[in-house]
Amino acid sequence: MTHVQSGPTCTQxxxxxxxxxxKVERPGEGDPTxxxxxxxxxxxxxxxxxxxxxxxxxxxxxxxxxGKKIFRRLIEQCDVMVENFAPGAIDRxxxxxxxxxxxxxxMIYASVKGFGPGPYEDCKVYENVAQCTGGxxxxxxxxDRVPLVTGAQIGDSGTGIHLVAGILAALLQREKTGRGQRVxxxxxxxxxxxxxxxxxxQQRLDLCGVLQEYPQYPNGTFGKAVPRAGNASGGGHPxxxxxxxxxxxxxxxxxxxxxxxxxxxxLAKVIGHADWLDDPDFSTPNARLPRLTHVFAEIxxxxxxxxxxxxxxxxxxxNVPCGPILSMKELAAEPSLRNTATVVEVDHxxxxxxxxxxxxxxxxxxxxDVQRSPLLGEHTEEVLRDVxxxxxxxxxxAKAQGAI
Length: 404
Ligand SMILES: CC(C)(COP(=O)(O)OP(=O)(O)OC[C@H]1O[C@@H](n2cnc3c(N)ncnc32)[C@H](O)[C@@H]1OP(=O)(O)O)[C@@H](O)C(=O)NCCC(=O)NCCS
Known about the structure:
Elements: H1 6-16, E1 21-25, H2 46-49, E2 55-59, H3 65-77, E3 80-83, H4 89-92, H5 97-103, E4 108-113, H6 127-133, H7 156-177, E5 182-186, H8 187-194, H9 196-208, E6 239-243, E7 254-258, H10 264-270, H11 285-288, H12 292-303, H13 308-315, E8 322-324, H14 328-333, H15 335-339, E9 343-348, E10 352-357, H16 380-386, H17 392-400
Parallel strand pairs: 1-2, 3-4, 4-5
Antiparallel strand pairs: 6-7, 7-8, 9-10
Helix pairs in contact: 1-7, 7-8
Coenzyme A is lined by residues 4-7, 24-26, 60-63, 84-86, 89, 92-93, 112-114, 124-126, 156.
């Protein structure tokens, strides 16, 4: 019972792990993402196909009489029910948690909502709302500029992945107790969990008044809340994005360099600053803190003489942690990601071949085989017969009612 991104992300991972995932969609329309951001007329969008692989698809309206009976049967037969509709939607269909538990005490009922219990619990939430209300936007962006959202879907996909962990824990628990339970994940909570280091910094700021590793130190000013810090590292070693050769025309000609303390001597030498190693202003991490802008500017003088891959090839053997800014174009073509099935080409009967991101979680005994997403209602009859035990006459009657 999932739509859009957060719920489908969760069930897609479960499907990759081998679950028989039955996606239940509204007859006639289906998941709204089938028709959103379409690149080919009349064909399921990439938005949909990339979030619903390895699932079977049925149409069913649990608001009809016949639909309620079938939905009840599904609850009896299935192990896990996942939903991410607006608050109260499943209750309004006549299936609150108490009813689900009565029908199948072993059922694990997992939900994504925008907020947990509190003043906002009834609100509908999309990705960027979660990024804004969970602390990500406030702490992301250029110094003294507007808050920024990130392209990584930490609210939607992030919450779906958190929900997977809850479902697997509940399944393991059910093995011991025989009882199912309710699993809930709020998108605000997930984003805050992923912004944990920023709540760390808030408490450090409250105590110390400054954050020494932030670019605002020592010349800028700190307010009462953790500020946006450009590309500063969130960890114990300073880092920054520096330009590489070709940056004037290539928007991705950059590399992130982490100035890890133990690798600093090698980094200083390779950029032509062996002098820093004997200079008390630069020789220790604490001495460098107020001079980070200057140090990264010097590093950049060197990186702009090389392309980002050359920089990486030189810095990696020196144990300097660094990462080129890789575009989607580069990632789509990266052979190593194809070899590990992280980027997979799938064939679809309507749209032909397309790329998707495969399972990023690798199990040695259980590799994931990525299959295309289902067409709307593709498996309705097969599931109603095999899982719900309906006869052909029952199926025809449900069809006549518009239940399927
Ligand atoms: C994502 C979200 C904002 C979308 O809102 P929306 O498009 O207005 O959709 P809603 O979830 O409100 O409503 C879905 C409706 O379709 C109905 N519906 C869903 N599946 C159905 C089916 N198979 N048959 C009949 N009706 C169905 C629901 O019952 C609901 O109707 P109701 O409001 O009359 O009870 C909202 O679902 C939400 O906040 N979800 C929780 C947070 C979340 O997951 N957000 C991220 C999405 S990536």
